[in-house]
Amino acid sequence: MKQLLGKSYIIKLIWIFIIGSLCGYFIETSYYFLKHGVFMNKQGLLYGHIKPIYGFASILITLFLSVFVNKNHLKIYIYGCFLGGTFEYLCSLVLQYFFHTQMWHYHNKYLNINGRVNLLYLPIWGLAALLWLKFVIPYFNKVFDKLPEKFMKYLTIVLTALIIFDFGISIVAVRRMKYRNKGIEPKNGFQEFLDKHYTDEFIKKRIPYLKIVD
Q1: Confidence check: pLDDT of 5 > 80
Q2: Is the dihedral of CA 29, 111, 123, 87 positive or negative?
């Protein structure tokens, strides 16, 4: 992995998350528009137009499959199918059992596994892994290595802080939404703040496909 990314690989991994998340948002939003003819916001957090699952998947693909980048394209594709599908399944489990939310489901799709992953989509994960390692990462390295190192370091710190905030406020706002829908009154000033500024309407507008599950 270090050989693939070169110097500043920790900072590069953060940018890989950002770029992967942005690409995921753009691809899903564009696909929905082309399929249905209407725009639907496909972001995964309340503020950033990103899909974190794709960001984390991009990091995993880079970490675990980069060893094959100059050796075997078929292995990248096959392992990409397995890694992407497994990660998608685990993410669905984590969202449901730890955060009581559902961001996607395939219950009405052919060849789904517990509604969490669709086997028909696994080849897309494999193709994405191959394209990511063979084209995106080399171009990313070429551009990144030409940018001022100190500037990129501070920019990365700022963006990381913003993303962490986005994760945090999204988690607590959705959690409060769950209890609010159960009729549980706020117990402190912070929960009152969430009820006032992060209403159900606000959350559903930002993440329209979010579903609260028990």
Answers
A1: no
A2: positive
